[in-house]
Write a structure and sequence with these properties.
CATH architecture: 3-Layer(aba) Sandwich
CATH topology: Rossmann fold
Strand content: 15-25%
Structural class: alpha/beta
Number of domains: 1
Radius of gyration: 14 Å
CATH superfamily: Phosphoglycerate mutase-like
Helix content: 25-40%
Strand order of the largest sheet: 3-2-4-1-5-6
Shape: globular
Number of helices: 4
Length: about 160
């Protein structure tokens, strides 16, 4: 059994006028990420690996989750393709995850993350993944390479304002 937690980065600073890749989290984003990580802990969820876009806002969100889930920050896996990724890229990257990880959290961006969540055929439709939202699914597989074709079971959907 493999479990995937799809997490949109926390709220970013919209007043930032630099390169989009360098956009930081705003104050609310820095507050929401630890809250959402604690909600995972409250559900007794153990995450084996954190995988993130290297963009500053996604990276910082993953780091805040790592701190609160007691995962070493240096263990976060950064994948450049997850920055502005369309749904198909999520499938490609997930298929390549090491099979030693049974439970993985993936941090990325809209609109691709919303398209990806809706492509999972769980019966749950999400109009827009809010910032720091978590969409969790499981698949009865032993190898991540089988994730794309596997039947996914919806576990939960949570976001800061819920």
């Amino acid at each position: 059994m493999k479990t995937l937690f799809i997490i949109r980065h926390a709220k970013s600073d919209q007043s930032f006028f630099g390169n989009d890749f360098e956009r930081p989290l705003n104050e609310r984003g820095q507050t929401d990420a630890p809250v959402m990580a604690k909600r995972l802990l409250d559900k007794n969820i153990k995450i084996d690996a954190l995988v993130s876009s290297p963009a500053v806002r996604a990276k910082k969100t993953a780091m805040l989750f790592a701190e609160n889930l007691n995962i070493p920050i240096e263990d976060i896996i950064f994948i450049s393709a997850l920055y502005q990724a369309p749904a198909g890229v999520f499938y490609e990257e997930i298929a390549g995850l090491p099979d030693q990880f049974d439970s993985v959290a993936v941090f990325s961006h809209n609109p691709g993350i919303t398209y990806f969540v809706n492509s999972l055929n769980t019966g749950i439709e999400v109009n827009n993944m809010p910032t720091c939202a978590i969409f969790a699914v499981s698949a009865n597989i032993t190898h991540w390479s089988g994730f794309t074709k596997a039947v996914k079971s919806f576990l939960f959907y949570d976001y800061p304002k819920k």
